[in-house]
What does this fold into?
Amino acid sequence: MSRIPARPTGRPAASPLRSRLRAADVAHLGSAGLRARPSRAALSALGIAIGIAAMIAVVGISTSGQERLNSQLAALGTNMLTATVAETSGRERLPFPTDVSARVERIDGVESAASLAELRGVHVFRNSAIDESLTAGLSVNATELALYDVVGATLRTGTWLNAATATLPAAVLGATAAQRLGISEPGSLIWLGGHTTTVVGILEPVGLAAELDSAALVGIPYAQKSLAYDDSPTRLYERSDDAAVRSVQKLIAPSIQPSSPGSVAVSRPSDALTARNAADEAFTGLLLALGSIALLVGGIGVANTMVISVLERRREIGLRRALGATRRHIRLQFLAEALLLSALGGIAGVLLGSGASAAIALANGWVPVIPLTVLAAGVGATLAIGGLAGLYPAIRAARTPPTAALSS
It folds into this structure.
């Protein structure tokens, strides 16, 4: 008996519902593998965390150091120049004239100047019983009274030299000199140039004149009377208007020694601080490179973890495919798992790196400075690496046939 064909109704047959994977489903499936093997996930995330922590810490320490330098230069100023007697080949060193400060102060743009002289053969000791060969690297300088203001010095304790104490056996010690001599308060007695001398003040470290930290400073009148000072300054400090620093720098040497300007060496102490910071930045670049390598190794660890996860879960993948999951769904699942794993490592690395950077900065007396852009870049880098590391495993998982659930 033949079957009568059904009469067409004029309406197209309903297409099967397309399988959908919501964002919440992707998050749940992506975290399933991590929750099933937390130890493996933690170790893989640790590799990412170490790399990011190293990079954040290096950048944070460098930025904090730069901020400290900027603050230091702002406080000390960049308008101070120093002049010293230069070494000249085959010629005797020319001492500065006695009126070297007055000569420099006549230059347009110069605000103030002061000189000092290192007294050769004169040493300072805690007392007269100390062996004279044990100088502890300390020097004795005869100084003009204006030096304190020109170099921007500050007193830790006591007072600076004045017109009266400059004529007496009285000295002001630099910070290092006071420490090495065991002096902590004014009124203490020291043995200076064969004379008992009273300490009237102790300086804080002088940022732009570090040579003063290891010196004992006495007045010029006393040095002339008791320490055989020959009225020949060996160093000059000068402050000028900020806009005139470059022009003043060119005129100092000919003003001090008109007949032999080459015998005068002029420098800008703030340039040395900037150069030191540039060297630190070069070292920072090296550390960043090492941190990048650690981050790359962490990314390889994530890729390895994801490949192993795909191999171990072939039955799960095949079963999901048999139940209607598309290749796109499988790709999203494993890509989300790699991104989540990397994000956990990135966040942990940012926290560790920020903490280490802040701790080191505070230990050095700096203000911790960690740019937010660096933190965001750190997390972004981990997500990018996680995406790349999980791409191949995700594609490989998507190609797993539905029959894998039966054949595994």
About this structure: Residues 321 and 402 are 5 Å apart (CA to CA).
